[in-house]
Amino acid sequence: MFGANMELPNRLLSYNTALSKYNAIKPIRGRQDQNSRPLGRRGNANLTIRQDPDTKDIIVRLYHTDIIRYLSNGASTGFDGDNNHIEITPFASSTTNRVMWSILGPHVNTHWADRYQGLSHITEVGGLYYNTPEFLVVAPKETGWEIITGDKPIEVPYLNRKEGRQALKDSNYYTFKLWLETRIRLGLVEFSHRWGGAYDWSPRVAMTYLTEGEKGWAEISGRISSSVPLEAELRSLREAVYKSELCYDTETVPYFESYNAFSNAMKQANRVGR
Predict the structure, then answer these.
(1) Quick check: 151 and 130 in contact, CB under 8 A?
(2) How much is the CA Rg of the chain, to the nearest whole Å?
(3) Tell me: the pLDDT tens digits for 195-228?
(4) How confident is the model over 8-42, as pLDDT tens digits?
(5) Which of 1, 192, 206, 217 is 20 to 30 A from 132 in CA distance terms?
(6) In terms of pTM, does the model score above 0.85?
(7) pLDDT at res. 77
(8) Which of 179, 191, 183, 176 is closest to 223 using CA atoms?
(9) Which has the closest alpha carbon to 147: 166, 167, 131, 171?
C-alpha cells in the first residue's frame, strides 16, 4: 500500500526518458515477470514500469491500471513518426493524482475524483482544464504542452432564476407558506423542539412534501424547530427547491480557462439534486 510518505518517481516527460528509466531498473531477481519493474520503492510492486514487447511503448502501471503509456512511434493513435505523444488513462483516486503529478507535473495536473458529478476526470494541460472521461493524449510542444485528443465537451449546470421562481409556484411553496402562516395565527401549529440550525432539506423530499398538499405540508411543519427563526427554516426549504433539476439549465464549454471556473462548476454540479 502507498502511504502518505510513499516514494514517488521523478519526472518522466518523454518516451526517451521513460525508456532510459526502464532500462536503468534491474528486474527483481526470482520474479517470473522480468519485464515489469518497480518504479518507486524497489520492494513495492504497486507502481511499475514495463515495455510492451510488440509496440515498444513504455507503460506505467499503478496497482492494476495502466495510467501512462509513452508511445514509441505514435502508430496506435495515428500520429506517425512522432515519439513524444503520451497516452493517459484516468482513474479517480488521490493516490493516482499524486503519482501523475510526480511523473508529469506541472505540465499535466490531474483532478480526478469520483465525488464530482459529471466532472470526475478533469485534467489540466497547458493551464486549461479539460474533461477527459476515458483517455487523453498529450504532447510536449515548443510553446508548451498540448492535449491532442480525448477531451469531451463539458456540460456546466447553472441556476435559471426564472425557472426557479416557476418551480416554487409549481411545487405549491407559496400556497404552503400561506397555509403555515394562517395556522400559526390560529395557534394550530406545534413546532418541534429540535436544536441546531434550519432543517437540511433534500430537493427530492422537499418537492414530494410540497406537492402532496396538506398531508405533506403537515410533515414539513412537523420538522420546523421552535428554536430556529421561521425565515431560516423557509429559506432552507426554498433552497432545496432551487436545487432540483427543474431549476437548472446547462451550458456547454470546451474547457475551463482557470481553476476558479473549474472549482465553481464542481460546486454547482454537486448542488443539483443533492
Answers:
(1) yes
(2) 27
(3) 889 999 998 999 999 999 999 999 999 999 999 9
(4) 778 999 999 999 999 999 888 767 778 899 997 77
(5) 1
(6) no
(7) 46
(8) 191
(9) 131
